[in-house]
TrEMBL record:
Lineage of the species this protein comes from: Eukaryota, Metazoa, Ecdysozoa, Arthropoda, Hexapoda
Subcellular location: Late endosome membrane; Lysosome membrane
Entry GO CC: CORVET complex; HOPS complex; late endosome membrane; lysosomal membrane
Identification of the protein by name: Vacuolar protein sorting-associated protein 16 homolog
Main location: membrane
GO MF term (any one): actin binding
Keyword Transport: yes
Coiled coil region boundaries: none
Pfam families reported in the protein's UniProt record: Vps16_C, Vps16_N
UniProt family annotation: Belongs to the VPS16 family.
Species the sequence originates in: Clunio marinus
Length: 838
């Protein structure tokens, strides 16, 4: 089928190789910019364009004026300019992150951003500085951007990543009286390689190898020197042009020749760039060559096409085409994607072409629409998919709409059609069209967008300060807006001066920072970096995450606010972090004053000191006049070493008094007196008393028979009479001193009664002695002690006298185990007598 639609700028290079030239922008450079006298250095992927006066022309005319570097968007909008005030400028180039690399003759590489702001610099080494650089290349490695320089001694130095510059020297080519004519950098097996030509010789030098490899190509035409080398964007293809205008095209390893082509021109081309296949990024079937006023496009089968231009023509290689820049136009030369050719090509009978025509006839309300549909009804799904794919390759919005409408028309005839592809392409086209707008000036193709990823594209928009568009694209593609909003916040901090207005804008914009993925701490860090400390502190007060807030508050010397935030969070690790920072950075007195206002922090610090620094803890107690804590701490220390206790007890007692703990103070004083007595006792009896309690000390004296001294110590230290009597009874009983026990019981009225006497007698199996003291107990207690002594008869008589039938029953149960029938009968009679009366 033949369709003449949107193919006015198509041309063929042999059968099946159709190319097209797409106008991206009409340009209007400032009056002082004439590309005929300029050098142009453009970044790939629709990146910025650096333009400066031709350095060679400046050298020839002997001009001493410093060049100005202008940076434009692809649509000709001026982004910035750099008034060059450094060394002799050799060449420029762009990195993969859109940094402008400026290489000087002394081997110094200066880096600027797209707004002309200086970033940093590095050197290609001392030898390059000493011998000077005559040429330089900026090339893409697999993960970064590299720099290669050739010195006046024809030695090549490379840096594979300008962000981490490590200079390496490549192997030297054989010495000769002839100079190299051309050279190019190529990535081979992930290693940097250089191809160098000298007359008809070709040398390959590779990173990490010590030898230079001689290469060769076969040409049917005569030539003397290979004057120009061009490597494709994907490093898979090489083109060489000789002094006689013969073009050799082949693989990058030089083993496969695609074709030879006679340009018919003896002057060297200004540029040669491979046009990569849009359908297959590994293929390249055409080379674009620029001469003054001419653009020559040569296919690998030997066919060619020529376009006439203004004198100034510059080529910009892309991953799926070549951009052409002139004073008035910015264009893209590209191989027509197969899906597009299937629809708009001449004499095409593909399903997608019929579907497109069917929709066009349907729009005209023609019955022919049905006829076209009938031809492709069994392949309607293929046709729909190809129309959708073709739309993604188009720059003209009307063509995009026509193709998508055709696809929408066709998918209505597919049962259960999955619309995901259609929806995604619609989303991508909206993004691409927005980026291609003249005020944005980023003419990405569909493949380039897919290669860069939307995240990288958003980053580039944000860096250009197109925040509104970036947020709309992020929403459209369901991507996070946080990075965009953060960069917007950074920009406000950098360039707005009213802190109050900035805070108000942030509060209004970031009403729910957590859900937006925004951290006020990150914004505050930026404010601190640019010297806006007060603004940073205010921003930190808005930060809900204390673990992010506190460290930066400490960095800003807002120690009290940091401690307050940490204590309010209740996070002990966070509190300890603040305390340790304060402890190191603050004088001790000030530190202690600060933590006094924060009880939780102070208690945690005390706990820390208790485990790690007892002296510091004691200082805190002394500063706070916490006498009770001082006393307890001194006591704890003294107990760890009993020898120190004697000397510490006076201080401990005094601190207890000051802390209004009279009982503890008195106990401390009593213990001091006891220890004093114990020293005397050790000298007197030559046995250990030191460290014994008051109870054990008096007991030892009673065992030794020194009752008088025991009573003296008892009175001095105010042991209670009850305690002393218990001790005296227990010692007499354990020594079987029953007569002394009886004397003691009669010495004065017992403060503890006579039951302890009974107990000690029973323990010594002295029933007779026990009876003496049982009779002196209360009647209700006598029954219990008679039972414990096994005197059931006496117990029963007393219970009967007391009319205590419950006790009688208990006695009966206990007596039943004795097999004493007489006793049992007597108890039963008592019980019967009392029961009868009831």
């Amino acid at each position: 089928m033949s369709l003449l639609y949107n193919i006015g700028d198509w041309f063929t290079l042999g059968h099946g190789n159709t190319y097209r030239k797409i106008e991206l922008y009409q340009l209007e450079f400032p009056e002082n910019i004439n590309l005929e006298h300029m050098n142009v250095f453009a970044a790939p992927y629709g990146g910025p364009i650096a333009i400066t006066k031709n350095m060679k022309q400046l050298t020839k005319t002997g001009s001493s004026s410093k060049p100005i570097i202008y940076i434009f968007t692809c649509s000709g909008h001026l982004l910035s300019s750099i008034n060059w005030n450094s060394g002799a400028l050799l060449t420029l180039g762009w990195s993969d992150s859109e940094d402008l690399l400026c290489i000087q003759e002394d081997g110094v590489v200066l880096i600027y951003n797209i707004f002309g702001q200086y970033q940093h610099k590095f050197s290609m080494g001392q030898e390059a500085a000493d011998t000077k650089v005559i040429d330089a290349k900026i090339f893409a490695t697999y993960q970064a951007t590299g720099v290669a320089v050739m010195t006046t001694h024809f030695r090549i130095f490379i840096v594979n990543n300008y962000k981490d510059p490590k200079v390496r020297l490549l192997p030297e080519i054989p010495k000769s009286s002839l100079d190299p004519a051309s050279w190019a950098v190529i990535m081979e097996d992930r290693r940097t390689t250089c191809l160098i030509t000298r007359e008809q010789e070709i040398f390959k030098v590779k990173q990490d190898e010590n030898i230079c490899t001689a290469m060769g190509i076969s040409l049917d035409f005569d030539y003397k020197t290979i004057r120009f080398i061009s490597v494709s964007f994907n490093n898979r293809h090489v083109a060489m042009c000789t002094n006689t205008g013969i073009l050799w095209m082949g693989s990058s390893d030089l083993r496969t020749k695609y074709c030879e082509f006679n340009t018919g021109r003896t002057e060297m081309p200004k540029q040669m760039e491979w046009c990569i296949d849009a359908d297959d990024p590994l293929k390249a079937e055409a080379l674009v060559m620029s001469y003054p006023s001419i653009l020559l496009i040569v296919g690998i089968n030997g066919d060619s096409n020529i376009y006439t231009y203004d004198p100034a023509v510059f080529l910009i290689p892309e991953m799926d085409g070549v951009r052409v820049l002139t004073n008035g136009y910015h264009e893209l030369v590209q191989k027509v994607p197969k899906c597009v050719s299937n629809i708009f090509g001449i004499s095409i009978s593909e399903p997608s072409s019929f579907l497109f025509e069917s929709h066009r006839k349907f729009s005209e309300r023609s019955h022919q629409s049905d006829e076209y549909l009938c031809l492709i009804f069994d392949k309607i799904d293929v046709a729909v998919s190809e129309c959708i794919e073709a739309a993604s390759f188009e720059f003209d919005t009307e063509t995009q709409k026509s193709l998508m409408r055709a696809a929408q028309f066709g998918k209505g005839f597919i049962k259960g059609h999955n619309p995901d592809e259609y929806i995604q392409v619609c989303r991508n086209l909206r993004v691409l069209n927005a980026l291609r707008e003249k005020d944005i000036g980023i003419p990405l193709t569909y493949y380039q967008l897919r290669h860069l990823t939307p995240t990288v594209v958003l980053d580039r928009l944000v860096f250009r300060k197109h925040y509104g568009l970036a947020i709309q694209i992020a929403k459209h593609l369901n991507l996070s807006e946080s990075r965009i909003l953060l960069h917007w916040a950074y920009h406000k901090i950098m360039f707005e001066k009213n802190d109050l207005e900035i805070i108000q804008k942030f509060v209004q914009k970031f009403k729910d920072p957590t859900s937006l993925g925004i951290s006020f701490c990150a914004i505050a860090k930026k404010a601190e970096e640019v010297g806006k400390t007060d603004l940073a502190i205010q921003l930190l007060e808005l930060e809900p995450n204390c673990s992010l807030q506190v460290p930066l508050l400490l960095k800003l010397n807002e120690n009290k606010k940091a401690l307050l935030a940490a204590t309010q969070s209740g996070d002990t690790n966070l509190i300890y972090m603040v305390l340790m920072h304060l402890k190191v950075s603050t004088p001790l007195s000030k530190f202690q004053m600060i933590i006094r206002d924060f009880p939780l922090a102070q208690n945690l610090y005390k706990k820390y000191c208790q485990l790690n620094n007892v002296k510091a803890l004691k200082d805190i107690y002394m500063q706070e006049d916490d006498f009770l804590a001082q006393a307890e701490m001194s006591l704890e220390e003294a107990l760890d070493s009993y020898i120190k206790l004697d000397s510490s007890l006076i201080e401990i007692s005094n601190n207890f008094k000051k802390g209004h703990k009279d009982v503890e103070a008195e106990l401390s004083e009593d213990h001091r007196k006891l220890m004093k007595q114990q020293k005397v006792l050790e000298e007197k009896y030559a046995r250990a008393f030191y460290g014994l309690s008051l109870h054990d000390t008096i007991r030892e004296l009673l065992v030794l028979g020194d009752v008088k001294l025991a009573e003296k110590i008892k009175n001095d230290i105010k042991m209670s009479d009850k305690h002393f009597w218990y001790l005296r009874i227990e010692v007499l009983g354990s020594n079987y001193q029953w007569d002394e026990l009886e004397k003691f019981s009669k010495s004065k009225k017992s403060p503890i009664g006579f039951e302890p006497f009974v107990e000690v007698c029973l323990k010594g199996r002295q029933l007779t002695e026990a009876k003496k003291y049982i009779n002196k107990c209360r009647d209700d207690r006598k029954i219990i002690w008679y039972n414990r002594a096994g005197l059931y008869e006496e117990s029963a008589k007393l219970a009967f006298e007391l009319r205590d039938i419950d006790s009688l029953r208990n006695i009966h149960n206990a007596a039943s185990t004795t097999n004493n029938r007489e006793l049992i009968t007597k108890i039963e009679n008592f019980i019967a007598a009392m029961s009868g009366k009831k």
